Amino acid sequence: MTPVERFPEPATMRASEAAKPETTWSSVPHPALSGHAGLWWGLVGVAAFSFTVPFTRVAVGSFSPLFVGSARAVVAAVLAGIALSIARQHWPTRIQWARLAIVAGGVVIGFPLLTSFALTTVPASHGAVVIGLLPAATAVMAVLRGKERPARSFWVFAILGAVAAITFATLQNGGLGQLHWSDLLLFGAVLSAAIGYAEGGLLARELGAWQTVSWALILAAPLMIAFTIISIVQRPQTGTAVEWLAFAYLAVVSMFLGFFAWYRGLAIGPMAQVSQVQLAQPVMSILWAALILNEQLGWATIIGGIAVIACAALAVRTRLNRKQPQ
């Protein structure tokens, strides 16, 4: 996904000019930027996202998972509306709105809600290992959506990653075949996010990257507002200062600001190298779970994390290597 930031267009712009592709600052390399600037911006974005799982675990300690999953999207939608208004972005077309619904369903609605409910019963480190499958899952969805023909090894590594994640989840629950409902929610979250990211990657070429996320937040806002109201009606949402801070981070950084750094890194590039920085996210999440939540990291978590992340890395690299010569 290549983010682009568009300058406001004059109201008097001729129709012939409107049909031309817009010039974007992100498409022109900035002379002051070093060769590693894209990687550093990408790392900042990934570092921001890496706190999502442990902070979700903190937030659901007192707040209902429905509130954590929906209210954070409402806050982010307000910020998105402000950003879109300041940048004077044009409204998407009907077809783009339909595609934005897919992005919103996966990234704004599916992933936050499913992970919030799942993390009420499983440790953050456990969730981070299963979600470590996301880079490979996103690559698979991008291949299917873009009708690519990757090497056979790509599918081998993607399947091995899924098997490793499932094996880890079942062993953590007492033996093979013992998947917990929370694991099913986590796998559903991975699938939702992968679909949303893959469609968003294509749509970002037309709307711009941060604009795509912002419009998806706006589109999902009515439903998420309704969910937020329902959660508050069910029971008052009260928590400690730490839990409110964790929720604020999820709303402001995980759902909104983190995307700015991530997409800025992809814009500077090189995109193939920057995108692989995402593979460090589950490692960071497991580390934060141990340092912030004092979770004990057993050998199963360590070995499971290494297996899932390694398979995801091989799948992503296999796809990138296949695409580069073309």
What can you tell me about this protein's structure?
By secondary structure, this protein is an all-alpha fold. It has one domain (35-323). The protein has 14 helices and no strands. It has helices at residues 15-18, 37-50, 52-59, 65-87, 94-118, 124-131, 134-146, 152-172, 181-207, 209-234, 241-268, 271-275, 281-292, 299-323. Helix 5 crosses helix 10. It is globular and about 45 Å long. Residues 1-34 have low confidence and may be disordered.
Main attributes of the structure:
single chain; 326 residues; mainly alpha; 14 helices; 73% helix
For the residues shown, what is the average pLDDT? 78
Largest sheet: none
- Helix-strand string: HHHHHHHHHHHHHH
Count of strand segments: 0
Nutshell version of this structure?
The protein has 326 residues and is mainly alpha-helical.
Question: What is the secondary structure topology, with strand pairs?
Answer:
Elements lengths: L14 H4 L18 H14 L1 H8 L5 H23 L6 H25 L5 H8 L2 H13 L5 H21 L8 H27 L1 H26 L6 H28 L2 H5 L5 H12 L6 H25 L3
